[in-house]
Amino acid sequence: MAKGVNGLGLPTVSIGLLSIAMPPAQAAALMVMSALITNIWQMLSGPGLWRLVRRLWLMKLGVCFGGGSVQVALTEWVCPAFSIDEIRC
User: Fold this and answer.
1) Cβ atoms within 10 Å of 27's Cβ, excluding its own
2) Do residues 30 and 18 lie in contact, with contact meaning Cβ atoms separated by under 8 Å?
3) What is the spatial distance between Cα 65 and Cα 83, in angstroms, rounded to a whole number?
4) I want to staple 2 with a disulfide (CB 3.0 to 4.6 A). Which of 13, 26, 61, 62 is the partner?
5) What sign results for the dihedral spanned by CA atoms 77, 78, 83, 84?
6) CA distances from residue 88 to 40, 53, 56, 77, 82 in whole angstroms, order as listed
7) CA 65/CA 59 separation, integer angstroms
8) Is the pLDDT of residue 83 over 60?
9) According to the per-residue pLDDT averaged within each range, which of 42-51, 68-77, 80-89 is highest?
């Protein structure tokens, strides 16, 4: 109802309302988890998941390879002393 009336959408309205009762970071985490769960549910119950996976597998492989390459390049060449605890560039 709130989305149709004012155009703000569920996350904006619900995070604002939830942050009255809990810290905003916890309210955002609650919204992210609920959105993730419902999106996975819709993905798995939809009729064309495997058809879509078969059609886009090469692109997904390229995205994973490209993302991994960028991560390696950033950690090895740009900042060789990169660690989780401390960044010394």
Assistant:
1) 19
2) yes
3) 22
4) 13
5) negative
6) 38, 41, 39, 13, 7
7) 10
8) no
9) 42-51
